[in-house]
Amino acid sequence: MSNKPDEQRIRFEACLNSERPFLALHDLAKALRDEGVTQLDLYLLFDSSREGLPDDFRYDAILDVMDFIVGGPIAKGNDLYTSTIDYEDVKASRSQSR
């Protein structure tokens, strides 16, 4: 499966609109990681996808999976990557995309 951002977004939206969004999004995050998506890119996909959503169960599902993407103590042992995300990298990536 290709990791093009448009395809990732389509897959993300399908998971978000599923009957059990947390489980679907968690499975998607693991699949994308296994397909070679970097921790930073996966974080940015989830972060940008929560913008504009109402504060409901779908929004909560995104944030819960983001905890596992971030890693470290916030993931409570359920880290998807071996390192904790560096928020300086997140800020730098956002600055470059503007």
Which key phrases capture this entry?
single chain, 98 residues, globular, 5 helices, mainly alpha
Structure overview:
The protein is mainly α and 98 residues long. The chain has helices at residues 5-16, 21-34, 39-50, 57-70, 87-97. It has one domain (5-97). The chain is 64% helix and 0% strand. α1 runs antiparallel to α2 (21-34) and α3 (39-50) runs antiparallel to α4. The longest helix is centred in the N-terminal third of the chain and has 14 residues, at 21-34.
SSE order and pairing:
Layout: H1 5-16, H2 21-34, H3 39-50, H4 57-70, H5 87-97
The major β-sheet equals: none
Please give the radius of gyration in angstroms: 13 Å
Task: Estimate the strand proportion.
Answer: under 5%
Distance between the termini: 28 Å
Q: Estimate the helix proportion, in percent.
A: 55-70%
The ordered string of helix (H) and strand (E) elements is: HHHHH
**Spans of at least 5 consecutive residues with low confidence:** none
| Helical run tally | 5
Summarize this entry quickly.
This protein is mainly alpha-helical and 98 residues long. The chain has helices spanning 5-16, 21-34, 39-50, 57-70, 87-97.
